[in-house]
Amino acid sequence: MRTEPLTAEGQxxxxxxxxxxxxxxxxxxxxxxxxxxxxxxxxxxLQRVLTVRHTAxxxxxxxxxxxxxxxxxxxxxxxxADEKTGAPPRKKAWWPLAVSGVAAxxxxxxxFAELAPEWVVAGMALFAILLCGLATYKRGWIALKxxxxxxxxxxxxxxxxxxxxxxxxxAAMVMFLFSVAELIEAKSxxxxxxxxxxxxxxxxxxxxxxxxxxxxxxxDIETIALGALVRVRPxxxxxxxxxxxxxxxxxxxxxxxxxxxPVDKGIGDPVFAGTINETGSLEYRVxxxxxxxxxxxxxxxxxxxxxxxxxxxxFVDQFAKVYTPVVFxxxxxxACVPPLFMAAPWYDWIYRAxxxxxxxxxCALVISTPVTIVSGLAAAARKGILIKGGVYLExxxxxxxxxLDKTGTITHGKPVQTDFIALAEQNPEHCRAxxxxxxxxxxxxxxxxxxxxxxxxxxxFFEVEALEALPGRGVRGTIEGMHYQxxxxxxxxxxxxxxxELEVKLEQLERQGKTVVVLSNPxxxxxxxxxxxxxxxxxxxxxxxxxxxxxxxxxxxxDNPHTAEAIATQVGIDEARGNLLPIDKLKAxxxxxxxxxxxxxxxxxxxDAPALAKxxxxxxxxxxxxxxxxxxxxxxxxxxxxxxxxxxxxxxQQTAAIxxxxxxxxxxxxxxxxAITLTGQATMWMAVFADMGVSLLVxxxxxxxxxx
Length: 708
Description:
- By secondary structure, the protein is α+β, with helices and mostly antiparallel strands.
- A 7-stranded mixed β-sheet has the order 14-26-25-24-15-22-23, with helices on both faces.
- The protein is elongated and about 120 Å long.
């Protein structure tokens, strides 16, 4: 997904293909942060994108500064000429590295077996170093000029030091192994990048669109306008968000919502870009252009989430700022103090200092956090859980209380008629038809449920005259010259028709969590209709899973307390509160937080906005196709399955565990090598394997989340 390079605020997205790890980020940040007109820098290493907020004349200066560092910046959305001058370099040829390896190994063998003069060994080693290490030396020199001690600077110093003390073969092998390890690390990081690119590949490049003359033509997705009619055949991917205009089919929505089973679609139903049409042929009307589909918004949200640093990542970055200079000073002390003050041999202690420089770089520690976080974000997106940043991914494991809205969250949000009780000696079918005739003229969900039930039974509706809405109570009207009312408990009492017997029946149904309306004429009540919002089959499973994770639950609803208690009991929720306005839900969240809980709130993203905003993590239900939910929620569940919340918490726990493992592994191995180096047991070979080996280990460990 592309964004404009310049916005009204002065923002540019710059792609830097050589920006692979925190080494390059730190160098660029140090260079640009001191430039006038640069107000903010946001790095996304895994997408190799730098977002710069700047004044009107600062962008060319920033681009020039990046080029001075040896990088090739490309402004996204720039003209063809700009892209030509700033095109990323081609992939490096593999043969120089291979020849360098042969030369380095040959120098080592000749030196060990004493098969050639020292000058021959030195010549082969120098050839190997120059063949694979010039780029490292160049980057190291640029880093030193900018007062930056990154891995390239440390490696350049270490290899040069090894050459100066006569360790030619070892210097060559260290440079070769470092180049190989960098190549492997870059390839492994591509796996994390591909997790996001895989989302982008879900949308087909072309689709079949109806033309003005009625013919059908295959065109590029990017050129299709709103309102266009698109045809999709069985087995094809849907290219754009739309609404089914004709046909019916079964759609695999797993790429968007994570649903395991296909969903049946008919006329008027929504379809989403990136989903798969499995059975019948469909025609749908486009409701969102390519840049604004649900899938495009998901990709954009995940990319933004990568750029936002999680708490662990912020800690690691701050730690690395102090760690590297301290280790460099320690290496300098190791090289100088024993020979100067303890009469120790210079050669041995300089060599130990060089070994420490090789293993000192915090690259493994720093790269482990973004790789782990983006792997978790991508794994969640595949399951239909859109997490808006690493901070929420890390925070999820700490949730201790979850507040849930009722309608559309625990229940389907679509009331259905559950009971009919005749109260007078009249034809039941006639009573149903009378009530449905009045109900069909109201847009209230309860009235619509009664009208829908009658229509499904094939009842004939009567003509209603003098229809009058009674706000908060019901409706009244005249049918075949007789006056009728259809309303709630309150209306029946106001009309003076609520007998003791009727009161008992009303209370019984209301205690079951049902909404009751009564059909009456001026003399007496005729019939009762009970309507209820049915509970989703998955709600109880989700609540049980939350309880198993130690998370308590509370239901917050505007429905009456009887309904709230009945639904809460049915699904196993710990506590229920009814008759709540939005401000009351906000106060409920605040009261839970005052009791020391970390609180999550689940709602529809609009009516529950105050409570969602106040909670530590706001979950929006059924966010597919909803701009507001995707943009405002901390976590958006792309379908209406509550079971995704315990899945999110488990993923948060797994992510936190892997982050801890990576930090302990990186620091532990470096501490071990510090001890081994001081005793003189470590070699530069071992240091390279330790440094780059642990980098690869933490990267692969972080990528495990993609398989969860």
